[in-house]
Amino acid sequence: MSEEPLLGRLESGKVHLGKDAVKVLYEQGYFGRPLDDGLELTLVEAAYLLDRSRLRIEYDGHILSFRSFFELASSFEKGFEFRYVVYKDLRERGYYVQPGVPDFRVYPRGGHPGKTPAEFYVFVVSERTPLPIERIVEPLRLSSQMRRRLMLAVVDEESDITYYEVRESNPSGRTESAEPGGQATLLDDRVVLWDPKASERLHKHGFYGKMIGERLQLSLVETAYLLERGMIQLVDRSGVPVPLDELMRRASEIEEDFEMKYRVYRDLRDRKLVVKTGFKFGTHFRVYKSVDAEKRGTHSEYLVHTVRVDHVFHLPVLSRAVRLAHSVRKMMVFAYSDDGVEYVEVRRLKP
To answer: Residue 61: left if φ>0, alpha if ψ -120 to 50, beta else—which one?
Structure first.
């Protein structure tokens, strides 16, 4: 014999039930929040239980159908329909799910509230919603402080869900410093180091630039780094020295976001990582923990794309970047500059 549905009342954006619901719903399934006078359910919890015929809901003197309740709830709570889809999916995968910051707390299989800490904080967003990076960073910092993992649940136009794990990244490498080079000439948008031995040293030990015959051709970000570190001397075609600030000015005329890109390049190099262009992957950089320029087949570990601190993600673009990185066995990392340079890694997650 099936259980008789419990009766709840919709008031002030919550569904309230009597004390008997605590034993039936909370103690057996960890639904809702126990109060002195009974149990309080959020709208997504109530919708889930209503759909499973475990609950009846009264509002304004009427018993609501699932349709009526769903329409009301979506008018009370912005984004309700997306959160319901994710809540239902996670529950049906066997997880205990409770409301939390930013949207839900998810407990590991075999664990539950009161016994084990939550494993994930879940942030739900629609595929069509532009997502400023600050909206990711805030829950990410909270989850890190609480030693939880952050799950980004993206609901697409057909209500399918793609899950991502978002986490702070601290990339580091083991590449030794290269020896100083010699004099190089600034051309239009790149630089040539003329001395063959100096060219070979920089390329072999730091994997800087590309050897064109016996000479090393450097990108502008590589040149800025080597010049700032005193490892090359830079002149123009007339032999006039080009200081770092002049190089930065000229490079910024060629590439609008050059200074932002250079801050990230410099930070990665200072972390003993090898940094090369990520153009073929649609990112700013591909990054190696270490590399031997004489050997072929070394794979980079990271794809790093630099964004502004006020950057807004468009989720289809984010999805393509993460999928591409996964397909070539790399980690997709977004770098932004706050006080220093911060790194956020995004990867596909299968709950």
So the answer is: left
